[in-house]
Amino acid sequence: MSDSSDEEISQQKWVFYKDRPDWKDVEPIPQDDGEEPVVTIAYSKEFTDVYDYFRGILKTQEKSERALQLTKDAANLNPANYTVWQYRRDIIKALKKDLREELEYIRQTIRKHSKNYQVWHHRKVLVEWLNDGSEELEFTKSILETDDKNYHAWQHRQWAMKTFKLYEGELDYVDSLLQTDIRNNSAWNQRYFVVNNTTGFTDVVLSNEIDYTLNKINIAKENESAWNYLRGLLLHDKEGLSKNQKVVKFCEDLYNSGNRSAFLLALLVDMCDEEITQGSGDVLLARQKGIDLCKELASNYDTIRCKYWEYMANTLEKKGTGTDEACTSSTAN
């Protein structure tokens, strides 16, 4: 329930439904909190009035213009109420209302309550009914301009893109967001989503994406989002983490230059772990290098997870010696 919504209603010279002559035929139904409620919510008089009458029309299943207006008042007071929005959709279908008008109404509502799941769901249903997603990219873009990490806006955008094949130009849009904020994890996630649902991670695409990501890491070496994206890319590399020479060289050069980003060190540890597991290259060297990196992370660069890195150092030390399974079992216990 929103206090601002209560104020909005009051400012409109609110007339209680119980005092409206055209609602005299409806029996309001009070909220039932049980015989001995532990804590009674202090609803405003307007809220109680609206929802008593909403329960009244819900019981009789009235679908009329006045019922539609009542759902608007109820949604204004509590936009997170699923039942209100579902019943509003039932009325819209029964009255065969203009869906474009409803789309405009929910556009304005989302602007006021952009982090509310129910309002986005209502828009999604309307777009499905219209079978037209032509406005969705521009609309979500306008929301993201004020909150570029809005989860609901990104979720809706991805749904619309996948449903109506609206991928054209999206990588350029994502790139513009990353130029504004290179740490925008939502934009990195969107980049992965677009590539995965269009070209896929072919050898050429993978190479280009790795180049793009390494360039971004060079700009902000402590940017966890870019390092995570790089890891995601390497999952599509047939050779694995430790065999992509472009990435290996980049990481080694970065380390040798004195950089001690926790994300860099963590990736190097995983590369060493992979080499040991696969038995490729100099296993002894990889083991010692991995152990040393874990100690660096535990003592200096990722101390909040020191126990994890101590565990990893112990695991790497035992790996390949025949005691790694016992070590893992002992740690689990």
Automatic annotation (TrEMBL):
Species name: Popillia japonica (Japanese beetle)
GO molecular function terms listed in the Swiss-Prot or TrEMBL record: CAAX-protein geranylgeranyltransferase activity; protein farnesyltransferase activity
Similarity comment: Belongs to the protein prenyltransferase subunit alpha family.
Any one annotated GO CC term: protein farnesyltransferase complex
Stated name of the protein: Protein farnesyltransferase/geranylgeranyltransferase type-1 subunit alpha
Domain of life, source organism: Eukaryota
Gene3D superfamilies membership: Protein prenylyltransferase
EC number of the protein: 2.5.1.58, 2.5.1.59
Keywords: Magnesium, Prenyltransferase, Repeat, Transferase
Cleavable signal peptide: none
PANTHER family for this protein: PROTEIN FARNESYLTRANSFERASE ALPHA SUBUNIT/RAB GERANYLGERANYL TRANSFERASE ALPHA SUBUNIT (PTHR11129), PROTEIN FARNESYLTRANSFERASE_GERANYLGERANYLTRANSFERASE TYPE-1 SUBUNIT ALPHA (PTHR11129:SF1)
InterPro entries on file: Prenyl_trans_a
Cofactor(s) listed in the protein's UniProt record: Mg(2+)
